[in-house]
Amino acid sequence: MDPVHRAAAFHGPLRPRRGGEAGDSLLSQAYGRDLLVQALVESLRKFDPRVQSRNPVMFVVWIGAPVTAALTVKPDLFGPSTATPAYNAAVTLILLLTVWFANAAEALAEGRGKAKAAELRRTKTELVARRVLPTGEFERVPAVALRKGDIVRVDKSELVPADGEVLEGKAYVDESTVTGEAAPVLKEAGTDIFSSVTAGTLVISDWLRVRVIANPGESFLDRMIHLVEGARRQKSPNEIALTVLLAVLTLIFVIVVAAMAPVAFYLKAQLNIADLIALLVALIPTTIGALLSAIGIAGIDRTLRFHVVALSGKAVEAAGDVHTLLLDKTGTITVGNRQATEFIPLAGVRTSDLIEAAYLGSSFDTTPEGRTVVAFAEAHGGAVPRLSDGAMPFDFSAATRMSGVDLRDGRVVRKGAVEAVVAHAAERFGMPEPPDLRAAADRVARRGATPLAVSVGGRILGVIALSDVPKPGIRGRIERLRSMGIHTIMVTGDNPVTAAAVAAQAGVDEFIAEAKPEEKLHLIRREQSRGRLVAMTGDGTNDAPALAQADVGVAMHSGTAAAKEAANLIDLDSDPTKLIDLVSIGKQMLITRGALTTFSIANDVAKYFAILPAMFIGALPGLSALNVMGLATPRSAVLSALIFNALIIPALIPLALRGVRFEAASAEKTFYRNLMIYGVGGLIAPFVGIKLIDLLLAPLL
User: Could you tell me if residue 13 is inside a domain?
Assistant: First the structure.
C-alpha cells in the first residue's frame, strides 16, 4: 500500500464518531461487528482468576460459581440440602453469566482502544527511513532501527519515520493520522512550535531533513499505542477509593452471610449453600463492581475521540474539578505568529504606495512576520509588483532589525523596527524623521500591536501594524468556561500594553504580563496552596515546568517535545480551549460513577425483599409480610433476584460507555437530579424486573 493510501486507511479509526445520528444505536456507532466479536472473545479470556482477583466484588461471584457447580454434581457435598441439582445448576449458570457480563463491559470499553492500537502498531512497523550517513549518502533502514540523534531525509509522499526536529527544508505535512484533521501543517526549521514532526505523518510537498529525538519505544506513536490500548492506564484516586469501599462492603457481607449459618441452626431453618451464595451475590454491589472499570476506560476513550491523549484516568477526572485555568497567550489564545492587520500611510503618502513598498520590503523576508505582510499586501493591495531580475535582497537580522530589497532601478526599500528604519534613513540618505511618524507608531502600540516602518530611498512612507490575533471563537469559549465556574488567567512574556489588549479581546478574567517561566510555576503553586485544582495549556519549552506542576497539564500537539513530555494530556487538535470538552468529560465520568453506584446500592433493596423471606419463611412465617412482590415460591424468588442482578449489568453497559448526560449546572442541582433518577429509579426498577422474571419462571419450577 502506498503512503497516501496507507495514511488514508489509518485516518479512519482515529476520527471521532459523532452521536445522535438517526437510526444509530450507541454500540453501532462506537463498535463494528469485528470489534464486538473481539470484545466477546476477550470477555471469555477474562475468566482467568488472575484477572478476576483485581476486582474483589466480581471475584466473590466468580468463586461462588465453582462452588455451586460442585453442588450440582453432589448436592449434599457440604451437608444435607433440599436444593436439587437442577436448581444448583441454574444458580451456577446465572453466576457465570453475571461474571461474563462484567467481563464484557470491560472488554467493550477496551475494544476500541485495542483496535486503534493495532492500526497504530501496523503503521509503525511499516515505516522505512532514509538515514543520512556522515558521507552525505543515504541508507534505507526500518524505522525501528533509528536512534536518537540520527538524521533522516523525508521527501514528498513519504511517511515521517520517527519523531524529530526539522533541521532543513520546508514542507506541508498531513498529520491526520495523529490529529484527525485533514488540513496540512507547514513544517520548517527555525520555528519553535512548527519544527517538530511526528512518526507516521505524511509529507505532501517538498522535503525535510529531520533529526530523530526519540529512541525506539519512546516516540509519541509508541506512547499512543500504550495509552489507547490501556496498557498504562492508572486508576484515579476516586476510582481507587471506590474500589476500596466496594472491597470493604464485600468483606462485611461475606461475614454477615457466614454468620447466617448459626442463626439458621438456632432457628432450625434448612439453609442451602446455593441460597447463601445467592444472598451474598445479591447483597454485594455487583452492578457498580462490574461496571467500574468500564466507566474509567470509557472516559479515557472519550478524550481520545475528542482528539486528546490522556496519560491516565486521574488527569481526566481532575479536569472535572478544575477551578483555575492558566492560558499561555502566544499560540494558545492567539494564533501564534503576529499578523499584519493594518497599513497606516503618513501625510502625503498614498495607501497603494505604502502597500507596494511593504510588499517589496518583505518579499525576501522568510520570517513569519515577513510572510504575513506579503499575504496582507496581496489581500488588500490589489495588483502587487513583480521583482525584476537582479534585485538584491537585504536579509533580516537581529543586528539591523530590518529587511528589504535593493532594486535595479536604484530604489532601496526597507521595512523594520521604527528606530532602525529612522536611523537607516538618516545615516544613508540624510532624510529627517517625518513629524507624524511617532504619533502613528504610538497609536499602534497603544492597541497592543507592534509598529513596523517602511521606507523607499530614505523616505518613510508609513507604518505596518503587526497584531497578536486571537483565535476565532476564543471569547465565546472563555465565557463558557466562566459559566462553569472556571477562573481564566492569561500569562505572557509580552509587555503590559500588549497583554491588556489581547486579554480584553479574549475576555479572560485576569492576565499577568512579562511573566517568566518561574513566575508561571509560582502562580500555579499559589493557586494550589489555596486548595484549588489548576489546569494549564501551553505549547512552548518555557511552559514545561508549569505544565508538570499543574494538576491538569494540556500540551498542544503542535508544541515542543518538552511541553508534551511535561503534560499529562496532549491535545492533538492544538486547541487551547479544548479544556471545556475535558471538563465535561471529567465531570461526566464522576457523575456516571456516582449515579451507577447509587443505582447499584438502591436496587439491592429489592433483592433483600426477594431472597431473605425465601430463605427463612419456613422457620419464620411472619417474614411472608416482607414478600411485598408476591413472588411465587422461595426458589423462583432467589432465581428471579439473581437473574435480574445479572441482566441489569448488560442493560447498563451503554450508559457506562456513553456516560450520564452532563449539563452545566450547580453541583447541588446535579446531585438531586441524579438522586431522583438513579436513586429512586434504582429502588423501583428491581421490584418491577424481579416480579416480571418471577412470573416467567413460576410455571417452569
Answer: no
Same domain flag for 421 and 498: no
**Residues in CB range of 391: below 8 A, 6 or more apart:** 405, 406, 407, 408
Residue 585 makes CB contacts below 8 A (sequence gap 6+) with: 299, 302, 303, 306, 316, 319, 320, 659
State pLDDT tens for residues 348-373.
999 988 998 998 888 888 777 788 88
In a domain, 207, yes or no: no
| CATH code of residue 357 | 3.40.1110.10
Q: Report residue 235's pLDDT band, with 50, 70 and 90 as the boundaries.
A: low
Cell of 683: 429502588
pLDDT digits (tens, 9 = 90+) for 411-444: 899 998 899 999 999 999 999 999 999 999 988 8
Q: Check residues 326 and 397 and name the one with the higher pLDDT.
A: 326
pLDDT recorded at residue 464:
93
Does 63 fall in a domain? yes
Q: Report the alpha-carbon angle 196-201-203, nearest 5.
A: 85
Among the three residues 572, 595, 629, which one is the final residue of a domain in this structure? 572
Same domain? For 436 and 349 the reply is yes
Are 484 and 566 within one domain? yes
Q: Are residues 603 and 653 in the same domain?
A: yes
Give the residue-averaged pLDDT of 293-302: 78
CATH code: domain of residue 554: 3.40.50.1000
User: Residue 43's closest CA among 113, 92, 102?
Assistant: 102
3 closest CA partner among 143, 133, 117, 132: 143
Which of 435, 467, 499 is where one domain is finished? 467
Same-domain pairing of 588 and 645:
yes
- pLDDT range class, residue 579, cuts 50, 70, 90: confident
pLDDT at 194: 64
Residue 224: predicted pLDDT = 63
Both 414 and 374 in one domain: the answer is yes
How many angstroms separate the CA atoms of 29 and 109, rounded?
14
Q: Got the DSSP string for 106-167? A: HHHHHHHHHHHHHHHHHHHHH-EEEEEPTTS-EEEEEGGG--TT-EEEEETT-B--S-EEEE
| Structural domains counted in the chain | 3
Neighbours of 321 (CB within 10 A): 16
- Containing H/E element for 422? helix 418-429
Is 112 part of any domain?
Answer: yes
The answer to whether 506 and 475 have CB atoms below 8 angstroms apart is yes
Pairing of strands 552-556, 534-538: parallel
For residue 470, the 8-state DSSP code is B
Rounded to the nearest 10°, the torsion over CA 151, 538, 117, 585 is: 180
Indicate if 349 and 461 belong to the same structural domain: yes
Please indicate, yes or no, whether residues 487 and 498 belong to a single structural domain of this protein. Answer: yes
Domain that holds residue 416: 339-467
Distance (Å) of CA 172 to CA 36, 167, 560: 38, 15, 18
DSSP collapsed to 3 states, 68-85: HHHHHHCCCCCCCCCCCH
Instruction: Render 249-297 in DSSP notation, one character per residue.
Output: HHHHHHHHHHHHHHHHHHHT----HHHHHHHHHHHS-HHHHHHHHHHHH
- Split at pLDDT 50, 70, 90, the class of 28 is very low
Q: What is the pTM of this model?
A: 0.63
Q: End-to-end alpha-carbon separation of the chain, Å?
A: 61
Positions annotated as catalytic residues are: 328
**Cα angle value 160/118/313 (rounded, 5°):** 95
* AA identity, residue 549: Q
